[in-house]
Each structure stands twice: as structure tokens, then as C-alpha cells.
Amino acid sequence: MTKEKAILIDLGDVRIREYDNLNVTVERLETAFNPITKEYTTNWRFKGYSRTILTALQFILNNELLIDKKAISDLKSYLKQVEEINMRVQRELEVPSEYFR
Predict the structure, then answer these.
(1) Would you tell me how many other CB atoms lie within 10 Å of the CB of residue 16?
(2) Which residues lie closer than 8 Å to 31 by C-beta, 6 or more apart?
(3) Are 42 and 29 in contact (CB under 8 A)?
(4) Do 82 and 75 touch, CB atoms closer than 8 A?
(5) Out of 22, 32, 47, 79, which could bridge 26 as a Cys pair, Cβ 3.0 to 4.6 Å?
């Protein structure tokens, strides 16, 4: 019997989970096509390890895991999404803005 790891931060399609006492993991909810069953399935996919929650948040922002790439049509729409996501993370976590520089 495995113990389910705690979800530390849930940002909708991206979450940070406890891995062990030294690390956390970053996961993203993604839909993938299974060629064997010919079905689409939505599962949490592992994206990386981080030592702290703060570095996990920086990993999420640096790797654009919250960016909707289908909604980007030009540089202006991309920059707007980046700004909105940075504000969303700060607002949800109440983290001072100097941590995101």
C-alpha cells in the first residue's frame, strides 16, 4: 500500500507535490493520445524535481508550464499571458514580487 503524496500547491493545470523530505515534484495535467487503445486520456505528467517550493515555482514560470501556447498569436499576446501568470502566481501564493525577478 503506497501513501499518496501531499499536494502542496495547486495552480489548476500545474501542481507541486511532496516527493520526500528533501524534494518536491512539479506535475502538469496533460491530454495524450494512446495509439493502442485509440483514446485520449488526461493524466498528471511529471515535469521535474525541485529542492524547494520556491524553486519549483521558478521552474514552472521558467518552463512556461502555465502558458497556453494555442492562445499565442504574436509577441504581444505572449507577453500578456506571461504578465497574467506572474500576477496569478503572486496573488494565489501571496509571495512578494521581488522573488520573481
Answers:
(1) 22
(2) 40, 41, 42
(3) yes
(4) no
(5) 47
Q: What is the block-wise mean pLDDT of the chain (101 residues), using blocks of 10 residues?
A: 81 92 94 92 95 90 88 90 85 65 60
In whole angstroms, what is the distance from residue 32 CA to residue 4 CA? 23
Rounded to the nearest 5°, which phi and psi values hold at 68?
Answer: -90, 95
Distance, C-alpha 93 to centroid of its chain = 14
Look at the block and give the residue holding cell 499518496: 4
CA-CA distance, 77 to 53, in Å (whole number)? Answer: 28
